Amino acid sequence: MIFAKELGDTLRGALTDDQRVVLLGEDIADPYGGAFKVTRGLSTAFPARVRTTPISEGAIAGVSAGLALAGYRPIAEVMFGDFLTLMFDQVVNHITKYQTMYADQATCPVIIRAATGGHRGYGPTHSQSLEKHFLGVPHLRVVAASLYHDPRVVFADFLRRDEPVLYVEHKLLYPQHLTLPVNGMVGDLIATSSGMLPTVRLSAVPREDCTVSVLAYGYQAHLAAKIVERLAIEEEIFAELIVPAQIAPMDWAPVLSSVTATRSLVTVEEGAGGWSWGAEAASVVSRELFGTLRRPVDVVASEPTIIPSSKAKESAVLVGSAQIEAAIRRAS
Amino acid sequence: MSTALAPARTDERLTGVPGEPLDHRRYRRMRFIRRFEETLLQLFEEGALNGTTHACIGQEADAVAVTEHLTEGDHIFSNHRCHGHYLAHSGDALGLMAEIMGKEAGVCRGLGGSQHICAPGFKSNGVQGGIVPNAAGIALANQLSGNDAVSVVFIGDGTLGEGVVYETLNMASLWKLPLLVVCEDNRWAQSTPIAANMAGSFPGRFSAFGVPVRSVDSTDVAEISQAAGQEIAAVRAGEGPRVLLIHTYRLCHHSKSDDERPEQEIAERWLVEPLVVHGRRLSDSDRLRIDDEVETALGEVVATARALP
């Protein structure tokens, strides 16, 4: 099954198993079933708890917050992650504050799902990866979909805990098939996992023989994996790719243990460069492993400008395989 | 889910003595809110409190009238000017006083302070429009659960500047949510008069979404209570969201000492404030007796709160 269907199946399972689960979002009802068809069939099966809404992102987030305060488990869909800006007040001043400022007398476990990312030619306001603006919001978990993480495991974790989550789904993952580790392997790469929401590590050879660590999430992790595999086979350049599901707050331990072995780190993200996830990684790694690093951390991110519609111009702005490969070569 | 940190500590001298006439009870409860807030302002002047506060002096009738019709299971979402709503709802003077004093025994352990209160059936937050969808979400939860509980949200005239309010009114109307919006129009959004704040029709802001508006131009607790009772009953009966629009007046400054409003305008409103209007229904001796009881009880609250760690 492609990721979009795996995710839809996950949501169906959540609605079936837990009467508290409510889905809200724009155009999510049948027959349309959401702009990326993730929720197709769900409003027919669960008409009261799967609700299509007006184009009102602030109210979608705010109503979700009220549902969560009242004990429900709302899952809000943001049609394009670009529209997360319209939810920012609810996330920063309401959803993530309630539990702590009310001294644990309430919880507000809202799950926000956002379709993010470019390379589709949708242009400046339908292509962005805005999650960096949510990294570091106190009491918010930011989790990225990837082909190495089963959404069933991810959502079971969300629903088991009482914390708000932003889950970013890169659009180019939807038509891909999951490549979950099987018998410790993903394709020809050795795969190891750690943690409840596992951080997956992929490499062609044992870590001790790798000369660079690559930290990436979401669709960029998928691109990086293909490069790591090819460079190993064709040129014996060995990298260890680290793919966390949760990108904030970060469990840095798997990154630090990898960099301790390779002494070099490349970070990859599709969001605009500067003040970013990679910048935070560079800060942490330089603080913890200053004497170990062979070279400065290489932060790969997109150009800090608008994302053009033209295919050629979009490719020149967004991180893609070429930038990732060049960075791995430099850093290995 | 909720763990109460401490039981709400109430005192009949503040919240109402069993068996006393309704007129006495209403006067007592409004007097309690008035004197609580005047005491707060005095404590600020003494330097005994940290931060800021927004008093509802002049608007006490709204809180007392609306809460008369709420019951177990109903929920109030309030705003930055929430003391009156909270005290009318819970009577927990000590919990709120301790909270504003930043004490561990406060309703939110001193984390929330004046504007961020949580207790069973009550929450407040300091950003204006955002509480409206939160209250609507609670209303949706009640609708999904199939109970007849009502979700109430208090907003002000100034809140109508924020767009999420209209997103929510639309959604609440479409989904017939059991939501009552109580809009306290106190004529001034901080320092900005309503004439500089609001274009078009005030009730039209709500009726555009098919949400019925009940306007009350009054500081009389009895009149407001009658309207509130009817509106809450309609919401409880499943008729969808409604608005109780109360035209009132804030007699005090916005927060602590920021007031540039015309003195004459304020002076005229002191002649028709809720305690004056309703106080006429009591004999002088009853009024003085109640004043005295409230004063003594509040004095004890302040002394107890001061002594808390």
Automatic annotation (TrEMBL), chain A:
It holds the Pfam family Transket_pyr. Its cofactor is thiamine diphosphate. GO terms for molecular function: magnesium ion binding; oxidoreductase activity. InterPro entries: THDP-binding, Transketo_C/PFOR_II, Transketolase-like_Pyr-bd, Transketolase_C. SUPFAM superfamilies: Thiamin diphosphate-binding fold (THDP-binding), TK C-terminal domain-like. SMART domains: Transket_pyr. Residues 1-176 form the Transketolase-like pyrimidine-binding domain. Keywords: Oxidoreductase, Pyruvate, Thiamine pyrophosphate. Coiled coil: none annotated. This is Pyruvate dehydrogenase.
TrEMBL record, chain B:
Keywords: Oxidoreductase, Thiamine pyrophosphate. This is Dehydrogenase E1 component domain-containing protein. Residues 28-269 form the Dehydrogenase E1 component domain. InterPro entries: DH_E1, PDH_E1_Alpha_Subunit, THDP-binding. Residues 1-20 are annotated as: Disordered. GO terms for biological process: pyruvate decarboxylation to acetyl-CoA. Pfam families: E1_dh. Its cofactor is thiamine diphosphate. One of its GO terms (molecular function) is magnesium ion binding.
